[in-house]
Amino acid sequence: MENKNLATIGIFGGSGFYKFLDDIQEINIDTPYGKTSDALMLGTIAGKKVAFMPRHGRNHSIAPHKVNYRANVWAMKSIGCKRVISPCAAGSLQEHVKPGDIVFCDQYVDKTNGRFDTFFDKEDIQHISAAEPYCPQLRKTAIECAKNLGYSIHEKGTVVVINGPRFNTKAESAFLTRQGWEVINMTQYPEAHLVKELNMCPLNISLITDYDAGLVADCEPVSHEAVMEVFANNISKLQKLLFAIVENIDENKTCECDNVARW
After folding, report:
1. pTM tops 0.90, yes or no
2. Helix, strand, coil fractions of the chain, as percent rounded to 5
3. Do 227 and 96 form a contact (C-beta atoms < 8 A)?
4. At residue 226, does pLDDT exceed 90?
5. How many whole angstroms separate alpha carbon 211 and alpha carbon 219?
6. For residue 114, pLDDT beyond 60
7. Terminal alpha carbon distance of the chain
8. 204 by DSSP, 3-state: which?
9. Could you give the residue numbers annotated as active site?
10. Share of the chain above pLDDT 90, in %
């Protein structure tokens, strides 16, 4: 894998964020896993090299179960990224986790199917631990930044990842709530695990947009339009947080994420 040292921090997210990077350069990366969701947008934040990619494409044309996660993550690694931040719109499964809140998930539960979710499916088979799926060091930095900004946050939580693109039935939502899990999303798996397989540090930032099927808050079930409206209303809030996190990352620090797999 060629390391071009073009960026040290990668960000997956919705379109719009890259417009706030300085001196944008777009590059396309050829990967062994096919085409990425979009070009990589390269820029700088606080003097640090950052790469951004909209995981659904810049026109939001790729459904969550169709995202080529392996190609996207491989592209980030190939240009030198050591840390990958994955902000996402997410639903709440618990009443105390409110729309507009931010959850820094420390666990996920995979309820997807049919997704290519490992780089180790050929000759060099490795069994990678997922016990701690997100980087504790990066999470600590992010939580401190959010507190300094005065945001309403939850320092940990479990995100349940469903296949999509449909939302849950009421029965499915009630079951997940009873498990005590806090967040629901369609993209965190296998994105976060693939980041770990390539010895990069993964960080999740779940921006809560809705109450899933509406049961726990006795409200209307989620709709795509409602999700996009809440997300759009909070985009500047998320941008400030992302900028603060990047600025406060100590690029000289190493952690256990560096040696998860043999490469």
Report:
1. yes
2. 30, 25, 45
3. no
4. no
5. 8
6. yes
7. 9
8. strand
9. 210, 212
10. 79
